[in-house]
């Protein structure tokens, strides 16, 4: 890989009210792009019952994005000491953003590994 890349999965389902007209509320869980509300601190755009866990997760994601922009790594310690290291063939792990913002790493699912392999082939590089 020419440049380091960090992989994450956002799995937190937002607190969509039952009477909302948002189609995703009944089946989507952490639907596409909802993580951006958290990553950019825009939870209050939607008048939902956000919890302290939602706000904590949002703060942790914002911090990681800012660190990445400033230092080129989203890890808390600029030396990578948080252990969220770049994705590599010998370290195929994903950061899971789920509830409280605590660091949780999991192996890539077989489906995700296949998707990553597809893009590696497409761009002519290997992880």
Automatic annotation (TrEMBL):
InterPro entries: AB_hydrolase_fold (IPR029058). It comes from the Eukaryota. This is Uncharacterized protein. The lineage of its organism: Eukaryota, Fungi, Dikarya, Ascomycota, Pezizomycotina.
